[in-house]
Design goal:
Layout (H helix, E strand, L loop, with lengths): L2 E6 L9 H11 L2 E2 L9 H13 L3 H10 L5 E3 L2 E2 L11 H10 L10 E6 L5 E6 L2 E6 L6
Antiparallel strand pairs: 1-5, 2-3, 3-4, 6-7
Helix pairs in contact: 1-4, 2-3
Length: about 140
């Protein structure tokens, strides 16, 4: 059985869209961590302020707030950092990207699920946010 790993394929950085975060909450039971909100509705206040201040639409503002708020979602009470390489083979993360396609990405990300052979030890390398998967091998300095 192959391994599935999520990467970002454009310059920018790995980020889930607000729609992808909502999908994880509704389809997989992920929850918003109250510890990241000083008061209920804080995230919505940030979105509203960005829309008013910057004149952007709601979708763009939600994507930005989600991207800038690491750990906004949790699963099984563990902190979720979407940029962490160790989390990229998480079944829920892979599922949301496969389910939503381009809608799982933001303006600064283009997410893709890459399939690699089972048993291969892997690592993600990146340049300015654009990522590739490499097989782990021995190196010395």
């Amino acid at each position: 059985m192959p391994q599935h790993i999520a990467i970002n394929t454009c310059f920018g950085g790995f980020a889930l869209s607000a729609e992808a975060c909502r999908w994880l909450a509704s389809e997989r039971g992920w929850v918003v961590l109250s510890g990241f909100e000083p008061f209920p509705g804080f995230i919505q206040v940030l979105v509203d302020q960005m829309m008013e201040r910057d004149g952007v639409d709601r979708e763009w503002a939600e994507d930005e707030v989600t991207r800038r708020t690491p750990g906004i979602l949790s699963h099984d009470s563990s902190l979720f950092d979407p940029g962490a390489y160790y989390f990229r083979d998480n079944a829920d993360l892979v599922a949301v990207i496969q389910a939503l396609g381009e809608k799982a990405s933001t303006r600064s990300s283009k997410l893709k699920v890459v399939e690699i052979p089972d048993g291969v030890k892997w690592n993600i390398s990146e340049y300015d946010g654009k990522e590739i998967i490499e097989e782990v091998h021995r190196s010395w300095r």
